[in-house]
Amino acid sequence: MQKSRSKISKKVVFYLLLLIPFMIVLAQTLDKIPQVKTPWANMLIQAFVLALIIKGWLNLVHGHTDFFHYLEFEKKIWQKLGLGCLFGIIAALIVVIVERFLGSSLRVFNQELLGLGLIKVLFIAVVFFIAEAFIEEMVTRGYVLEQFMEIGAIPMALFSSSLAFVLVQFLWDNPNVSILGWLNFFALAFLLGLLYLLTLSKWFCIGFHAAWNLVFTVIFPPLDHHGGHFASYLHMESMITTVFLLVLIGISYSLYSKKRENTQVKIA
Predict the structure, then answer these.
(1) Residue 153 resides in a domain
(2) From residue 95, how far is each of 40, 102, 164, 177, 215 by CA, in Å?
(3) Which residues contact 56 (CB under 8 A, 6 or more apart)?
(4) Number of structural domains the chain divides into
(5) DSSP 236
(6) What is the DSSP letter of 114?
(7) CA–CA dist 242, 82 (Å, integer)
(8) Is residue 55, in this structure, part of any structural domain at all?
(9) Residue 232 forms beta bridges with which residues?
(10) For residue 8, which of 144, 181, 211, 206 has the smallest C-alpha distance?
(11) What is the spatial distance between Cα 264 and Cα 185, in angstroms, rounded to a whole number?
């Protein structure tokens, strides 16, 4: 088992050392091309390039070409994505409502969503955030967490994928947040890891992740933009977010523990 963990760890580190610098260079390069400088087009191209990288990685390192299975392109993809979006929207709206109730909100409802530009704004935002979530989830939950899950190292899977998520945020988007913000990034990643263990669906996590960012950046944007290259992260520096994420982690862990117990009983 120790040899398996060491082998997986080296493979994961090598994967991140190759991938993350490439993501940074690609993002900076696309920013300098006028034709793709719009955020949604930029993000779509990066998501497409990442998919090609994953395909090549599966071929070279894992020796198989089961690319569409890895990306979970199946009949229920839209159902899982939609369910994840629903849960992500509800979770983010709870944080917004609690902030308003406690009088600590620095957000306003986006008035553009009331006009004729509703469909255009939402379409561009949804494309952008799903592409962004796709990239981050495939790098972290989609590969790092899955690798350790294969050898049953669940705690290491959750911890390492959460650290990878924080690393991706720091190097790729470079959000200007406080220590509390970074702790909340780790907590969000840990929650997403638990959701993956519960659903075994990358697209559920992508939906939750995209909807969470959509609510805080497009539907209820902050009065003062405070974030990185892609989105605003003011909500990540809130103790309300911290408490809520910890509550969700507790609930998700409890559900996962019951799921494991039921599975073990069935096997027995």
Answers:
(1) yes
(2) 26, 11, 25, 18, 10
(3) none
(4) 1
(5) G
(6) G
(7) 25
(8) no
(9) 227
(10) 144
(11) 32
Nearest alpha-carbon partner for 213 in 102, 121, 85: 85
The CA distances from residue 210 to 34, 43, 91, 130, 201, in Å, are 26, 13, 12, 5, 14
Rounded-to-integer distance, Cα 236 and Cα 227, Å: 10
What are the structure tokens assigned to 60, written together? 């070279």
pLDDT tens readout for residues 90-101: 999 999 999 888
Rounded Cα distance between 170 and 120, Å, is 30
Instruction: Look up residue 12 and give its amino acid.
Output: V
- DSSP tag of 107: B
Residue 85 near residue 195 (C-beta atoms within 8 A) = no
Q: How far is CA 231 from CA 145, 172, 196, 218, in A?
A: 25, 12, 24, 9
3-state DSSP: the chain helix, strand, coil percent, rounded to 5?
80, 0, 20
Check: pTM over 0.70? Answer yes or no. yes
Residue 56 placed within a domain: no
**136, part of any domain:** yes
Please write the tens of the pLDDT for every residue from 46-88: 888 888 888 877 777 777 667 777 888 877 899 999 999 999 9
In terms of residue numbers, what domain contains 245? 75-267
Using one digit for the tens of pLDDT, what is the confidence trace for 189-244? 999 999 999 999 999 999 999 999 999 988 888 876 655 555 678 888 889 999 99
Cα 229 to Cα 173: distance, rounded to the nearest angstrom: 5
Local structure of 227: helix, strand or coil: strand
